[in-house]
Design a protein that fits this description.
By secondary structure, the protein is an alpha/beta fold. It is about 45% helix and about 15% strand.
């Protein structure tokens, strides 16, 4: 294999979040208050969940697994609470919530070494992640992954997410990848594994992070 497509969260970055805890929304409530938008924890959680239900119902005919842009989500949340946010303001609110929702956030030990070794062997490394472009690039930079990939595709930029084969196809079309020379690596047997199988590429399951399965991954490298 020459092309290694990685999932990000819980494959390279060890993360645990709780988007419904009070801590996650405390800074958003304060920020909304500064903008004249009255909100509390219950109303924000209600609107946050309600948006996903409406979005999935509206876009189900477009993709099998649709993905939203959470900046637009926060704009709609504000509107339903009687306010209005610019895209810049909504991005800021989203980032406040995301950072406060993180209970655990760190790079799995050995991750950068794994990616560097793959590159040293002549392999190409790509990222295919169910993630939001409003905050994921910043989180990647935070843990030193910003410049580790030959190509990156995030679901919020594409309107669909794994395991949708359309999402895999977008990555392959954008970077000219060959299915016969590409493997998917991830922690989730549904979004990563089933998606890869449906698209017709092999999958390496890496519970506990990719670095813990370095030997299996490196065995897949072709030295031809």
């Amino acid at each position: 294999m020459k092309n290694f497509v990685f999932d990000l969260y819980n494959t390279l970055i060890d993360i645990e979040t709780d988007e419904h805890c009070e801590r996650a929304w405390a800074d958003v409530i304060s920020y909304f208050g500064e903008l004249g938008i009255r909100a509390d924890h219950d109303s924000l959680c209600r609107e946050y969940d309600g948006y996903w239900a409406r979005f999935n119902a509206k876009t189900a005919s477009v993709y099998a697994y649709p993905e939203c842009d959470c900046v637009a989500q926060f704009q709609e949340i504000a509107t339903r609470l009687g306010g209005k946010l610019t895209r810049e303001q909504a991005t800021h609110a989203l980032r406040l919530m995301r950072k406060a929702s993180r209970n655990k956030f760190r790079l799995f030990e050995g991750t950068t070494e794994l990616l560097d070794e793959l590159h040293a062997c002549g392999a190409h490394v790509y990222l295919l992640s169910n993630a939001q472009s409003a905050f994921t690039p910043g989180e990647m930079e935070e843990v030193g992954l910003k410049d580790k990939f030959d190509g990156i595709l995030l679901s919020s930029d594409c309107g669909c997410r794994k395991p949708d084969t359309a999402f895999f196809g977008m990555l392959f079309d954008k970077y000219g990848l060959d299915r016969s020379d590409t493997v998917m690596i991830g922690d989730d047997v549904t979004s990563d594994g089933a998606g890869a199988a449906d698209f017709g590429i092999p999958f390496i399951h890496v519970p506990g992070g990719a670095a813990a399965h370095k030997d299996r991954i490196m065995e897949a490298v072709s030295y031809e």
